[in-house]
Specification:
Length: 292
């Protein structure tokens, strides 16, 4: 039985989670995510536990449990002048940090230096910190999808989902893009998302066609379970300083994501194509019903 059928839909239904990564990154990211939930059609987000805006976003999540959220498991700190450190003491996770004690800046550094057992220690600590704050996440996902870089990283990811009885955001597209053999990495039972991960590409952004791409993707959405993956933030001085020299997923891009997902045009496309919005919480209810 497919996940669609388990959710009570036919296989000819276009199911969609509209999801925002990076909540907890900073104030601009938090405010835009909150407003996109309240005023737009965003219906899921995930929180970065090690980041400066974690407590602010946690307070919102606790006060607004009607909104679906997960934990954005974090192993990288990609910005040049905006840094964060692991939840655990650095001497317990030395393979995860650079010479200054910050998370590695690139996925390549994580792939080449991080030890899988230290990854598991740190990510368990991130989840435990969120739970101790009172959060009740609906799923786990991976910042920059670093947990798809190597098979032993992917194994940790899957094991954490099983340990905490939470669905993990897995997709054939992401895993295949890192050159992993999907058949040896995950089983059919593990696979949650296997169709149409929707996201923008830098070439489309450069050409001013990012929103056009989003419209095309939604207008041509396939039957089955889909994810529209966004990064919502405002193009403020704070966000400009954080993302300096990083136009890919920079402030203008994130502002465009916010503008589209709060637009009437987005709603019209969803309605016209009879797209059914669902959440990770609904998936969790059928994957782990005994823990609801």
């Amino acid at each position: 039985m497919t996940i669609q059928q388990k959710l009570g839909y036919s296989e000819n239904t276009k199911l969609l989670i509209i999801h925002a990564d990076d909540a907890g990154l900073c104030q601009s990211e938090n405010i835009a995510t909150i407003q996109a939930l309240q005023k737009g059609y965003l219906n899921s987000y995930s929180i970065m536990v090690p980041c400066p805006g974690f407590e602010e976003m946690t307070e919102f999540a606790l006060d607004n449990p009607q909104y679906d959220y997960g934990i954005h498991l974090t192993l990288t700190c990609e910005w040049q002048n905006f840094k964060w450190v692991p939840v655990l003491p650095i001497n317990q996770v030395q393979s995860l940090v650079d010479c200054k004690g910050y998370f590695h800046q690139s996925k390549e550094e994580v792939k080449n230096r991080a030890l899988s057992h230290e990854i598991k220690y740190e990510l368990r600590a991130q989840i435990d910190k969120a739970l101790k704050m009172g959060l009740k996440p609906s799923h786990l996902d991976s910042h920059m999808y670093t947990l798809g870089l190597k098979e032993d990283f992917l194994k940790v990811y899957i094991e954490l989902g099983e340990e905490y009885n939470l669905p993990t955001f897995l997709s054939k597209q992401f895993i295949s893009s890192f050159g992993l053999d999907i058949s040896s990495s995950i089983s059919e039972m593990d696979l949650i998302i296997d169709n149409n991960i929707i996201r923008g590409h830098y070439s489309q952004f450069e050409k001013g066609r990012l929103i056009e791409n989003y419209k095309n993707e939604l207008n041509n959405l396939s039957f089955g379970l889909n994810v529209f993956l966004l990064h919502t933030a405002f193009d403020t001085l704070e966000m400009q300083n954080i993302t300096i020299d990083h136009p890919n997923f920079g402030p203008e891009w994130r502002q465009l994501d916010y503008d589209f997902i709060t637009s009437n045009e987005c709603l019209e496309i969803l309605n016209k194509n009879e797209i059914q919005l669902i959440t990770w919480a609904e998936i969790k209810n059928v994957v782990y019903p005994e823990f609801v």
